[in-house]
């Protein structure tokens, strides 16, 4: 999943922050393939795969759900995000500032920064589970919400503290290391899958000589379907599909990746995101889920989702290294990015101090296993919170001029807070969360789809009212 | 030197993956798989750092 993309955004965000990317700085198709393939194989994949199994997913539902859901994610990048990115060639933040005004963008930054902190916390949690294999302290269980041992708190404090210090001192060095680790990490994930499969064959005594035999093993022993683990929502093909589609919702539908694709020569380059989806969100999730299914096969009472022990059982020291590096290299840019979001609120504050404080918040969040253990829920909420602003950008770019309204209205009117966008954002969130609370937790993974249309409609209606009340002050109005 | 390091890196990645494939085929012990993977990991990070570290800087500039 992933915020690991934020590293790219941080890199891309360092240039042309308040101007369109010039032709001379555009990148070729290959750059995007490498970027997405590496960036979507993160520490959190080691949680998500097992959580699918804990949610009682069946083999067909998992495979088909991921095939279709990932395709929908790629289409969202291709047809929602990239066309605007390659036409405007602006960062998400500058584009939003033109539409929403500086104060509303600051509010968006806070929301984004807080979500990054929690996500980084989940990544620290993942890395800390590897430490537990060495020091044998009590680690959190699937339904634990609070820290359950001093050893666990100490491990997270050390791992999170180190990550925060490194992010503050040497973000770029870790980013370089992450690029070197990426191909290695992808192949270790693949090895997890192969090893897990053989372990299943050995443990069940199954004869696997054809694809049909493998499918039978998958259905009867690995992804058996049935009831979910206690405290988990039952995942059907629809849940898997929507989860795969929306787990990066902030990036495609939410338009965060405008900052990435503004460098693309053509909008179809966004098809490169399929490299990330089918490596990280297909192969890696399936591999990680096999490891957890094998743990359940050995001992159905052992429901703990702990990437460290899972990886150690499959690949020994390399598995542990993979868990630590995957968590570290993805938490690093996430903490750094969260720091940037917070620093935007107070530009004079020291980047070093802000990153350290952000890292400390992420570390404290990481001590609470609730975020990692409820990662499927958290990721859905994360996308839901940032999605309405994606709808606002989409409507502002494509629809407002056709409806006789003006795009980038905050810039035109000199307003620092576009109420039409702000109310559309908050009201959409209220509608989505209200729907989830009244319908049930299972609807969390679906609410963002109608939510996008609610946000779009609200922004159009509210803009009609808002643009009548507040007249533009700009001397010239340029059509999009 | 750079091409040699690239070839070594590629071999390291093959050595990282191949044992798990052979294990899947039932022709290698898991302990041996783990050791070979560890060795391949060390070789990968040493060799890849030799040529990717510099490229990385340029790559980031490009991305940026």
Topology of this protein?
The complex is a heterodimer of chains A (480) and B (64).
Chain A: H1 5-13, H2 29-39, H3 45-54, H4 59-88, H5 92-100, H6 102-135, H7 150-204, H8 211-222, H9 237-246, H10 258-261, H11 273-298, H12 307-343, H13 351-367, H14 370-373, H15 375-399, H16 409-413, H17 419-439, H18 448-469
Helix pairs in contact in A: 1-12, 2-11, 3-11, 4-9, 4-11, 5-6, 6-7, 6-12, 6-13, 6-15, 7-11, 7-12, 7-13, 11-12, 12-13, 15-17, 15-18, 17-18
Chain B: H1 2-24, H2 30-63
Short summary:
The complex is a heterodimer of chains A (480) and B (64). With 480 residues, chain A is mostly helical.
Structure in words:
The complex is a heterodimer of chains A (480) and B (64). Chain A is mostly helical and 480 residues long. Chain A has one domain: Hydantoin permease, CATH 1.10.4160.10. Chain A is built from 18 helices and no strands. In chain A, α3 crosses α11 (273-298). The longest helix of chain A is centred in the middle third of the chain and has 55 residues, at 150-204. Residues 2-13 and 475-480 of chain A have low confidence and may be disordered. With 64 residues, chain B is mainly alpha-helical. Chain B has one domain (2-63). Chain B is 89% helix and 0% strand. Chain B is built from 2 helices and no strands. Chain B has helices at residues 2-24, 30-63. The longest helix of chain B is centred in the C-terminal third of the chain and has 34 residues, at 30-63. Chain B is elongated, with a radius of gyration of 15 Å. Mean pLDDT of chain B is 87; it is low at 57-64. The chains are: A mainly alpha (480), B mainly alpha (64). Chain A binds chain B through residues 8, 11-15, 27, 31, 35, 172, 175-176, 179-181, 183-184, 187-188, 190-191, 194-195, 197-199, 201, 263, 315-318, 321, and chain B through 13, 16-17, 19-21, 23-24, 26, 30-31, 33-35, 37-38, 41, 44-45, 48-49, 52-53, 56-57, 59-60, 62-64.
């Amino acid at each position: 999943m992933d915020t690991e993309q934020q590293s790219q955004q941080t890199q891309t965000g360092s240039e042309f922050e308040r101007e369109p990317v010039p032709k001379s700085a555009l990148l070729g198709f290959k750059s995007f393939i490498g970027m997405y393939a590496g960036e979507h194989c993160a520490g959190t994949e080691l949680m998500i795969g097992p959580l699918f199994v804990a949610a009682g997913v069946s083999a067909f539902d998992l495979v088909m759900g991921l095939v279709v859901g990932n395709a929908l994610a790629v289409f969202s990048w291709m047809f929602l995000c990239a066309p605007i990115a390659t036409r405007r060639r602006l960062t998400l933040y500058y584009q939003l500032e033109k539409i929403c005004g500086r104060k509303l963008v600051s509010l968006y930054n806070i929301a984004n920064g807080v979500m990054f902190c929690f996500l980084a916390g989940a990544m620290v949690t993942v890395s800390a589970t590897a430490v537990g294999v060495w020091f044998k302290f009590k680690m959190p269980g699937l339904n634990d919400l609070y820290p359950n041992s001093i050893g666990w708190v100490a491990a997270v404090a050390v791992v999170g503290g180190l990550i925060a210090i490194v992010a503050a001192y040497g973000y770029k060095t870790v980013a370089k290391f992450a690029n070197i680790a990426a191909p290695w990490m992808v192949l270790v994930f693949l090895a997890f899958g192969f090893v897990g499969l053989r372990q299943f064959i050995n443990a069940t005594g199954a004869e696997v000589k054809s694809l049909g035999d493998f499918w039978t093993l998958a259905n009867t022993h690995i992804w058996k379907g049935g009831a979910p683990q206690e405290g988990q929502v039952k995942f059907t093909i629809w849940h898997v599909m929507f989860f795969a589609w929306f787990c990066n919702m902030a990036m495609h539908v939410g338009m965060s990746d405008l900052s990435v694709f503004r460098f693309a020569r053509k909008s179809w380059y966004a098809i490169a995101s399929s490299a990330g989806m089918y490596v990280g969100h297909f192969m890696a999730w399936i591999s990680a889920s096999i490891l957890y299914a094998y743990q359940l096969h050995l001992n159905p009472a052992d429901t703990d989702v702990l990437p460290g022990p899972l990886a150690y059982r499959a690949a020994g020291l390399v598995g542990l290294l993979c868990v630590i590096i995957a968590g570290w290299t993805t938490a690093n840019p996430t903490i750094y990015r969260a720091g940037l979001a917070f620093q935007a609120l107070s530009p004079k504050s020291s980047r070093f101090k802000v990153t350290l404080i952000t890292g400390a918040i992420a570390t404290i969040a990481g001590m609470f296993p609730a975020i990692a253990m409820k990662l499927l829920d958290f990721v859905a909420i994360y996308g839901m919170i940032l999605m309405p602003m994606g709808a606002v950008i989409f409507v502002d770019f494509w629809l407002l001029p056709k409806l006789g309204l003006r795009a980038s209205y905050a810039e035109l009117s000199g307003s620092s807070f576009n109420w039409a966008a702000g109310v559309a954002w908050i009201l959409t969130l209220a509608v989505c969360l209200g729907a989830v609370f009244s319908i049930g937790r299972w609807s969390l993974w679906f609410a963002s789809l109608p939510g996008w249309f609610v946000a779009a409609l609200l922004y159009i209606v509210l803009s009609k009212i808002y643009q009548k009340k507040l007249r533009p002050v700009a001397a010239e109005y340029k059509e999009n | 030197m750079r091409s040699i390091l690239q070839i070594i890196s590629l071999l390291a990645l093959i050595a990282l993956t191949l044992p798990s494939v052979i294990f899947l085929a039932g022709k290698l012990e898991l302990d041996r798989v783990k050791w070979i993977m560890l060795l391949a990991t060390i070789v990968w990070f040493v060799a890849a750092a030799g040529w990717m570290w510099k490229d990385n800087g340029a790559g980031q500039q490009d991305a940026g």
